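Run log // design_07
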């Protein structure tokens, strides 16, 4: 048999399947990366404390502003100060719950522009997980502490009676609100793969959430209330859940049944945003390093 015949009859080697971690392995690696990010942030102790205090000061000043405004008026949009305090506390708590795991989405523009995102595509782990666990933002701890403090204070002045049903609903509503904010952040950040710079859109949405999400939307008129309920779901972050907890569902623009389903809105929006992330990821083109 000639050499050419031998080569021709030699079976081709089987293709090696790419290594893909199991779900348990992915969870283990993710937890390891999160702990590493926390250790990295905690090693600079003074910086750790100062950034946490900055988070407390930022969110606390927003609540102080509302307190000053409500000291001049008995109510806004039919909501008293104790009721708005509950609303504000839920919004800040949802915001903090979103920031802790998803803050690093704010840096995706830089990762794409610098070509750093390339390395996430050659590792056997979801690129989104790698982005989120790069670093831990310490000032998010300040947001968490402020949110818990304001909710405790708001509950006392609003004389809330926390039944088991309301506790479960509040927990689900905070998670749902966090998922809505996370969905908006993930959707906007996904556009980085197509347009690279998306910080103006992120800045605009953040300001809408800050300026409209901390007050009862009935203040802003019917058109704004409708748009911030059915187009951009700001209402479902805190206003609708707070109305359910306070038994103040009149004037929401949604039925009582839909109001109780507010946490589901966050899950739906985040699922859609993740599919959008996967779609836009196909448009990523390396800038090269």
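design_07 sequence
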């Amino acid at each position: 048999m000639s050499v050419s015949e031998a080569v021709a009859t030699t079976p081709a080697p089987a293709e090696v399947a790419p290594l893909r971690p199991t779900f348990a392995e992915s969870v283990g690696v993710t937890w390891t990366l999160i702990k590493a990010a926390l250790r990295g942030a905690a090693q600079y102790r003074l910086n750790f404390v100062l950034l946490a205090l900055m988070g407390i000061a930022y969110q606390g000043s927003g609540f102080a502003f509302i307190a000053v405004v409500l000291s001049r008026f008995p109510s806004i949009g039919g909501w008293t100060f104790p009721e708005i305090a509950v609303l504000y506390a839920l919004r800040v708590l949802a915001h903090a719950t979103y920031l802790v795991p998803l803050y690093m989405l704010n840096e995706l523009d830089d990762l794409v522009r610098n070509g750093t995102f390339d390395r996430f595509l050659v590792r056997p782990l979801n690129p989104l997980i790698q982005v989120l666990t790069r670093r831990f933002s310490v000032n998010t701890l300040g947001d968490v502490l402020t949110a818990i403090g304001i909710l405790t204070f708001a509950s006392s002045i609003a004389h809330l009676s926390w039944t088991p049903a309301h506790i479960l609903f509040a927990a689900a509503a905070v998670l749902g609100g966090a998922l809505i904010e996370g969905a908006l952040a993930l959707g906007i950040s996904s556009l980085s793969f197509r347009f690279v710079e998306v910080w103006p859109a992120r800045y605009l949405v953040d300001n809408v959430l800050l300026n409209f999400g901390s007050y009862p939307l009935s203040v802003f008129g019917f058109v704004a209330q409708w748009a911030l309920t059915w187009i951009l779901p700001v209402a479902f972050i805190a206003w609708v859940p707070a109305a359910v907890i306070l038994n103040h569902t009149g004037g929401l623009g949604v039925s009582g049944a839909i109001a109780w389903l507010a946490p589901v809105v966050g899950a739906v929006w985040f699922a859609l945003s993740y599919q959008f992330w996967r779609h836009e990821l196909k448009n990523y083109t390396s800038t090269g390093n």
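The longest strand covers residues 75-76.
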